[in-house]
Each structure stands twice: as C-alpha cells, then as structure tokens.
Specification:
It contains six helices and eight strands. It is α+β, with helices and mostly antiparallel strands. A four-stranded antiparallel beta sheet has the order 1-6-7-5, with helices on one face. A four-stranded antiparallel beta sheet has the order 2-3-4-8, with helices on one face. A hairpin with a 2-residue loop joins β3 (52-59) and β4. α3 (135-144) packs across α6 and α5 (164-173) crosses α6 (187-204). The longest helix is centred in the C-terminal third of the chain and has 18 residues, at 187-204.
C-alpha cells in the first residue's frame, strides 16, 4: 500500500498541474458519485492527509472536495489532455486543457463539501507530513493502544501516513522489538520512534524509491522491510517476518 510519502508526492504533482485551473473533464466511475459533474469548477489545491488525497475545488462559490484513497494498488497518473485511457480499473478522469489525471484502481472515491472533510478524516491521528503534526498527541495515542507497537504504528487513528515499510524501518532504527506492547514503551522511546518515522517519510518525499539506508538501489534501500530470511545488515541474523494487527489492518 502506498504510504504517506508516496501520497504526499502524488498530491504535490496533481497540485502542480491542477491548482488555479478549471476542470474541462470530469468522469467519476464510482457508483455513489457517477452522476457528479464538476466541469467548470476551479481547483483550489490538492493536498494529502496521511494516506488520503484531497482535491479541493470551488464551484459556484461553494467548496467541494474529491477525496480518494489508493489502498493497495491505486494510483493517479498524469497524461496529455488528448489521451484515450481504457480499462476496467479506471475509476476517475479529471482534466484541464493541458493535462488529464487518471485515477487507476482507487480504493475509495468520494465527493463532499470541503467543510465536511472531517467526516472522513476526523478519526485519524496527526499527519506525519502535515502542518498539524503533533508528536505529543501521537505518542499519547500510541501509549493508549492495546496491541503491540507494530500494530499501533499501523493504526491510522494513532498517527496518519505510516505503513509497513516505515513501521519496520523505524522500529529497526530505534532498536525496538515490534512485538512489545505499545503501553510498555516509555514516553522517550515513543517520542524518538515517531520522530524517526517522520524523518524517514520527509526524506523519502524527495525520491520515488523509499530508502532508510541512504541507497536507492533495489535490495539495498531498507534494513528490514522486504528482507525476509536475508541476513541483518548489523548482526547477520536472518530477518523474520510475522503479521501484526487485526485482520483488516495487518
């Protein structure tokens, strides 16, 4: 699943081509919003919150947001305005005179008043990459979590934007056992952990390939994630994998 850094980069690119421009094409292929036509609405901005994308527009003096979530395999691809995309996994087409954004295999797609965004995002913890980042609040959320620290990190209600890559890499970098109950960690340990995760995500926004090691070559860019049965880069012990969290958020 794309994590907060990937979603942030997607929002940044969409904002570059849409901000201040009116939509000349709007085709939303999702049952609940299939009849919505935002042609003529002007994009105010495209931003991310955790793993959520918010395409904010103004139409007839009212703010409206196209909300999407990439889930496991989704993406927004930008093409020429005359592109003719096809395929049953296309969920949205938004265009300007200069660009066409294709929402492919999206996991969620909603249209709602911008003032009501909280109805979709209000349950989320502070965004690791957002202006509302609050390390103290994130730490307090983690300390209250009833499961392991690995599961707590993946729970977007604690802090938003982190997924399996940055959970694994942050725990490794801080030398924390993923299976430790979150409540057993000290405030200092949790503070260092969330700030480490934030640094990893912020650094990753500059590159298409996530890296905690400083290397971008596949197979050399992580310490733990994706290295099942491979030797640890520190001690040589084979790395083991185990699932964390409830079935819907493993």
């Amino acid at each position: 699943m794309p994590e907060g850094d990937t979603v942030w980069s997607t929002a940044r690119r969409l904002n570059q081509v849409f901000a201040g421009r009116p939509l000349t094409r709007c085709d939303l292929r999702w049952p609940s919003v299939a009849e919505v036509d935002l042609t003529g609405a002007v994009t105010v901005e495209v931003v991310s919150y955790g793993k959520h994308l918010l395409h904010r527009l103004r139409s007839a003096e009212h703010g409206v947001t196209v909300h999407s979530h990439l889930r496991m395999d989704g993406s927004w691809i930008i093409e020429r305005p005359d592109a003719r995309p096809s395929g049953h996994k296309i969920r949205a087409l938004l265009g300007t005179p200069d660009h066409l954004a294709i929402g492919h295999d999206l996991g969620m797609l909603d249209v709602l008043p911008t003032a009501d965004e909280h109805t979709l995002l209000g349950h989320l913890g502070p965004d690791l990459l957002g202006p509302n980042w609050d390390a103290g609040r994130a730490v307090a959320n983690l300390r209250r979590h009833p499961d392991t620290i690995a599961a707590a990190l993946l729970d977007q209600r604690c802090l938003a934007g982190i997924g399996t890559i940055w959970a694994a890499e942050s725990l490794f970098a801080e030398r924390l056992d993923p299976w430790t109950p979150a409540a057993d960690l000290t405030e200092a340990q949790l503070t260092a952990l969330v700030e480490r995760a934030r640094r990893f995500l912020r650094a990753s926004c500059a590159h298409p390939i996530p890296s905690s090691t400083g290397e971008l070559r596949p197979g050399r860019n992580t310490y733990a994630h994706g290295r099942h049965r491979q030797p640890c880069r520190r001690c040589g012990t084979p790395i083991r994998v185990r699932r964390a969290g409830p079935p819907t958020r493993q």
